[in-house]
Amino acid sequence: MNILSVNNVTLTLDNKKILDDLSLDFWRGHIHAVIGPNGAGKSTLASAIMGLHGYTNYEGDILYDGQSLKGVAVDERARRGITLAWQEPARFEGLSVPRFITAGSQRKDTAYVKELLGALGLEPERYMHRSVDRTLSGGERKRIELASILAMEPRLILMDEPDSGIDVEALQYIFEGLRHLKDKGVTVVMITHSMAVLEQADHAFLICQGKLLDKGGVKKIGKYFANKCIACDHINQPALTEIKA
To answer: Residue 3 to residues 25, 110, 191: CA-CA distances in angstroms?
Structure first.
């Protein structure tokens, strides 16, 4: 059963057609990858699903649990269980790691925070009194962000370039966290142009210039992406600045 359906979505930004009659079905409780070259429209798709400012005036429809998301505000989408993990995690100067992790969770106890940190390979005692700020590395911030997502217990998580700016060790903990989400029945959608990330998925979509090129198993899509997706001069990036809030 699909948890999310993108039905014939076309989105134009700054007179550029970024998504072009795009249709995708995401199965409940699976890890999906949306892969394609830079400028393919991947992050724009995630922004439209999340309902970010500037990305809601599309043709077609996006259905969540069979219901249209048109006119549904970002905060309401979050309440319904949709969350988006940024390519570059936000910093919150002065906000402690425990408060950040439990901000969207019903559980606020210290033991729970320590459990989540430990599950992502972060020694709890090193982070309980730290802030989510510039003193943390990119890998640390990504894992702490994922801990906060685990605490929210979402139903659908969109991850934009989960491997961006982090080392191999941190990435493995991110992948373990995603598998943990899947085991709990969460649907994961990874936005990526990385073969390493693609290999973690159950199913993949290959898009370019806002169109679906192919879909299917990871091996099939990985072979296509590696052998047929070559550099081209198409620049499909809107000048519109994304508002990540």
So the answer is: 8, 33, 17
Check the CA dihedral 23-181-173-160 and report its sign: positive
User: CB–CB of 240/52 below 8 Å?
Assistant: no
pLDDT for residue 120 is more than 80? yes
Residues 200-236 as b or e (16 or more Cβ within 10 Å = b)? bbebbbbbbbbbbbebeebeebbebbeeebeeeeeeb
Q: What is d(CA 232, CA 169) in angstroms, rounded to the nearest whole number?
A: 32
- 223/104 Cα distance (integer angstroms): 39
Residue 83 and residue 77 in contact, taking contact as beta carbons nearer than 8 Å: no
Question: Which secondary-structure segment (H or E) carries 43?
Answer: helix 42-50
20-24, 130-134, 241-245: the lowest-pLDDT one: 241-245
**Distance in angstroms (rounded) separating the CA atoms of residues 166 and 88:** 10
Q: 238 with 18: CB under 8 angstroms?
A: yes
What confidence score (pLDDT) does residue 89 get? Answer: 54
Token pair listed for 130: 């730290």
pLDDT range class, residue 243, cuts 50, 70, 90: very low
- State pLDDT tens for residues 150-204: 888 899 999 988 887 777 888 888 888 888 889 989 999 999 888 889 999 999 9
Helices and strands in the chain: count of H runs, count of E runs? 9, 10
Secondary structure element (H or E) that encloses residue 68, with its range = strand 67-68
